[in-house]
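Quick one, tokens below. Sequence please?
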């Protein structure tokens, strides 16, 4: 019953010839051009969002594995030999410590870090010009310089003693490349309720690359850091600093500024310590700052951490700097 109607549509009225409903070559090319332009605009953003979600998932999974591994270790200090001629501290920490509680594919000493997928350069937070990957504890942070009797405010003095150590590296079974900095003489929290330095409390610091030698090798993307603090009852933190300059203000101002910037919050005191240890990875806008933390020091005061010298102390209403981390 539909054939007459279909036939009528297929032939024109004048000559009975089939009607033409195709596209011209110009129309096809124009359509492809529009599609190409739209794809060029949207694909980088789409790819970036996918990468960001992938990195966030990997980062959380790595943090969970590392936290569990460190919790299984009896103590984090005392590994390896460290004297005027021999430095096996970081390598031994991995081979005799971490590898017993964490599945590791490959371990590399300080002379063969590239064999574990460690890049030679990385870009600090915000994609600033690449810097050389640090190869020693002092290279990570020059304030790990073995200084003793550091003067504090009100003529107070705080002593610590440590030596520089070479970095080591390892690859996980999940494909992450991890650079390890180790302080074999790290100490526990002494319950300081006033001014102190945080250098001696760092036992192990890790710079991780979630995808090995692949790009973009940028902090906050595939590159990040993680720190194990205190030799016993250790605390592992992996802050992800935001590329955000909140200026300065009171503690209340700092809380509000971070809350209002995307998915952010103030770092706690241990995250702020980790940020000090890894300050070279944070870029030029972080140098010389004393930043607020979210951790109360009692009596209506909160800890603030100096990212230049490493000292920390309680404060109440002083206008310290505001820097945030991802929730």
């Amino acid at each position: 019953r539909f054939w007459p109607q279909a036939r009528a549509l297929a032939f024109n009225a004048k000559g009975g010839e089939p009607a033409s409903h195709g596209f011209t070559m110009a129309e096809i090319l124009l359509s492809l051009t529009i599609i190409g332009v739209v794809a060029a605009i949207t694909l980088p953003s789409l790819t970036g969002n996918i990468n960001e979600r992938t990195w966030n998932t990997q980062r959380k999974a790595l943090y969970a594995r590392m936290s569990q591994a460190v919790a299984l270790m009896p103590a984090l200090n005392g590994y390896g030999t460290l004297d005027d001629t021999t430095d096996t501290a970081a390598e031994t920490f991995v081979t005799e410590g971490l590898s017993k509680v964490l599945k590791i594919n490959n371990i590399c000493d300080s002379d063969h870090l590239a064999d574990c997928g460690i890049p030679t350069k990385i870009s600090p937070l915000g994609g600033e010009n690449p810097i050389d990957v640090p190869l020693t504890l002092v290279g990570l942070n020059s304030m790990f310089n073995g200084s003793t009797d550091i003067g504090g405010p009100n003529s107070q003095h705080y002593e610590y003693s440590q030596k520089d150590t070479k970095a080591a590296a390892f690859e996980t079974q999940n494909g992450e490349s991890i650079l390890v900095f180790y302080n074999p003489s790290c100490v526990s929290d002494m319950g300081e309720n006033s001014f102190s330095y945080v250098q001696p409390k760092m036992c192990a610091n890790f710079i991780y690359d979630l995808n090995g030698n692949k790009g973009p090798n940028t902090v906050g993307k595939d590159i990040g850091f993680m720190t194990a603090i205190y030799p016993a009852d250790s605390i592992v933190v992996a802050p992800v600093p935001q590329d955000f300059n909140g200026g300065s203000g009171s503690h209340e101002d700092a809380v509000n500024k971070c809350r209002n910037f995307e998915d952010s919050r103030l770092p706690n005191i241990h995250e702020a310590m980790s940020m000090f240890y890894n300050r070279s990875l944070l870029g030029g806008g972080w140098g010389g700052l004393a930043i607020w933390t979210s951790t109360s020091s009692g009596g209506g005061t909160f800890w603030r951490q100096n990212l230049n010298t490493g000292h920390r102390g309680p404060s109440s209403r002083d206008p310290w700097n505001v820097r945030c981390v991802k929730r």
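Helices lie at 3-10, 25-72, 89-101, 137-140, 251-259, 269-277. The first strand starts at residue 104 and ends at 108.
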